[in-house]
């Protein structure tokens, strides 16, 4: 304890307290011990560090160069230094004015269907392709995983292969995170009401397909980003519950299909004879559902939706974290 900043043990205890509060409130599992080398991080209070331009002064380390300047002005509250594989990050919490809002475009309501083939399909007919780099990296991921599996336990080469794989995992996570940020920013900037499906509606079965499981991880993050960005920009997120048959419903005449295996990309409605693209049809249904559920929530005349959605703004968060990479 004498070797490190007084904050290292102090903040750890404060954070343990928070972990227990979360546990007793039923929000989290029982706290577990952190392991050295896994999620390494410590938090500093503002009396323990200094930021000047592209440098940060950390106790016992001195001035450490940063990759970028702190982008927010205001009272600096704390900094968390963390490691992601072989990179170190300083996440600085700043008490700042509300971030400047980009002018909203008020393009009305949109339905968003998240997918594997395309990152998202909008009810406007737009398709947001998944990041191209991802496909290539997934191929590398497969190769590196195999390479790691062939290395002898406890060998230097195994450690090297493990590090390589961990870096690739981090890179893939970053690529996905970036494309999700672009998508959620675009949506909240353009539309007032955004209709999406409940996370679990996807039948989040355990799936061993790599691309699929990585896409699944994205759904939760998509929802998290959409919720906080919608609050900032005054947009509404309308969530259709898990029983809403977004892909089985004909968006033209409203007939519900019995079955719709995931392999079906195109289908023709037996009643009205419209040929639907699976994803676009789902997105349109989600948009229509969002319109009817927000109308009902605002006391207007609902269109008799069988599945009123929960329309709730996400809890307001005021913290703006700036993440800078050390050079
Ligand atoms: Zn139809």
Q: What does this entry look like structurally?
A:
The chain is an alpha+beta fold. The protein has two domains: 91 residues, no CATH class; 154 residues, 2-Layer Sandwich (Nucleotidyltransferase, domain 5). The strands form four sheets. It has a six-stranded mixed beta sheet with strand order 9-8-7-10-11-14. Strands 1-5-6-15 form a four-stranded antiparallel beta sheet. A three-stranded antiparallel beta sheet has the order 2-3-4, with no helix packed on it. A hairpin with a 3-residue loop joins strand 7 and strand 8. The protein is globular, with a radius of gyration of 23 Å. The site of zinc ion has 8 residues, from loops.
List keywords for this structure.
alpha+beta, Nucleotidyltransferase, domain 5, 2 domains, 4-stranded antiparallel sheet, 5 helices, disordered C terminus
Query: Which overall shape is indicated by the principal axes computed on the Cα atoms?
Result: globular
| Number of structural domains | 2
Strand content: 15-25%
Which distinct ligands sit in these coordinates? zinc ion
SSE string, helix = H, strand = E? HEEEEEEEEEHHEHEEEHEE
CATH architecture of the largest domain: 2-Layer Sandwich
| Main sheet: strands, sense, barrel | 6 strands, mixed
Can you tell me the CATH class of the largest domain?
Alpha Beta
The CATH topology name of the largest domain reads: Nucleotidyltransferase, domain 5
């Amino acid at each position: 304890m004498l070797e490190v900043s007084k904050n290292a043990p102090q903040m750890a205890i404060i954070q343990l307290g928070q972990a227990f509060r979360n546990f007793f409130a039923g929000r989290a599992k029982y706290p577990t011990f952190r392991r050295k080398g896994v999620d390494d991080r410590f938090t500093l209070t503002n009396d323990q560090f200094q930021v000047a331009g592209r440098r940060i002064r950390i106790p016992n380390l001195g001035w450490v160069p940063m990759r970028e300047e702190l982008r927010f002005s205001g009272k600096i509250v704390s900094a968390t230094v963390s490691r992601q594989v072989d990179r170190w990050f300083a996440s600085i919490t700043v008490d700042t004015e509300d971030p400047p809002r980009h002018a909203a475009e008020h393009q009305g309501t949109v339905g968003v269907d998240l997918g594997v083939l395309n990152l998202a399909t909008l009810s406007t007919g737009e398709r947001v392709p998944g990041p191209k780099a991802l496909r290539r990296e997934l191929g590398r991921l497969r190769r590196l995983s195999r390479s790691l599996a062939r290395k002898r336990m406890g060998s230097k080469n195994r450690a090297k292969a493990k590090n390589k794989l961990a870096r690739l995992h981090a890179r893939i996570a970053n690529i996905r995170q970036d494309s999700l940020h672009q998508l959620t920013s675009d949506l909240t900037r353009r539309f007032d009401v955004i209709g999406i499906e409940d996370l679990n509606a996807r039948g989040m079965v355990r799936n061993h397909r790599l691309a699929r499981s990585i896409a699944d991880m994205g759904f939760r993050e998509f929802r998290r980003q959409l919720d906080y960005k919608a609050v900032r920009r005054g947009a509404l997120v309308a969530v259709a519950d898990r029983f809403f048959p977004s892909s089985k419903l004909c968006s033209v005449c409203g007939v519900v299909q019995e079955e719709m295996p995931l392999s079906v990309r195109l289908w023709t409605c037996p009643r009205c004879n419209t040929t639907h693209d699976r994803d676009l049809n789902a997105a349109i249904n989600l948009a229509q559902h969002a319109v009817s559920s927000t109308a009902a929530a605002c006391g207007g005349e609902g269109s008799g939706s069988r599945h009123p959605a929960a329309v709730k703004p996400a809890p307001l968060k005021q913290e703006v974290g700036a993440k800078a990479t050390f050079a």
